[in-house]
Amino acid sequence: MRLFLLWKSLEETFTLKSAENDIDCLNYLSGKTMDYVNKCAMKGTIAAHVDGNVPTLLIEIPEQTEYHLGELFYFFEFAVGVSGYMLGINPFDQPGVEFYKGKYVLDSLASRVQK
After folding, report:
1. pTM for this structure?
2. Could you tell me if 87 and 79 are in contact, meaning their C-beta atoms sit under 8 angstroms apart?
C-alpha cells in the first residue's frame, strides 16, 4: 500500500523562475508554483500505482496546523489498534515493554530504596 498526504492549503509556496541556459529543460515550469508541480507529480504517481494494481490511500488535510497534524497521528494510532484486533493481535500487549519495565524500572526503584 502506498500512502499519499495532500495538504489542501499551504501557508507558503513559491513560484518557479526560468533559468537563462535551461540546462535541465525545465523552463516550461516557469511561472508555476511548487505546490502545483508537487500535486501534478502526485497525480501521476497515483495513476501509475493504480495502473499497476498497487493499493493507494490518499489523505487530504485541510491545512498545516497542529490540530490537523494531531488528527493525523490519532488516525494512524486508531488504525493500528483496530488492525491489530482484526488480525487477532492485542496491540497493547507489548512483551518487550513489559520486560523493560520489570527489569530496569524496578531495579532502578530498588536501588533508590536501598540508599
Report:
1. 0.61
2. no
Of the candidates 12, 8, 16, the residue with the CA atom closest to the CA atom of residue 33 = 16
Q: pLDDT at residue 99 above 70?
A: yes
Task: Specify the amino acid at residue 100.
Answer: Y
**Nine-digit cell string for 12:** 507558503
Q: Which residues contact 13 (CB under 8 A, 6 or more apart)?
A: 33, 34, 35
DSSP-assigned beta bridge partners for residue 58: 4
Cβ(3)–Cβ(45) below 8 Å? no
Confidence check: pLDDT of 52 > 70? yes
pLDDT above 80 (res 81)? yes
Mean pLDDT for the chain overall? 86
Decide the pairing of beta strands 56-63 and 2-9: parallel
CA–CA gap between residue 77 and residue 70 (Å, rounded): 10
DSSP bridge partners of 56: 2
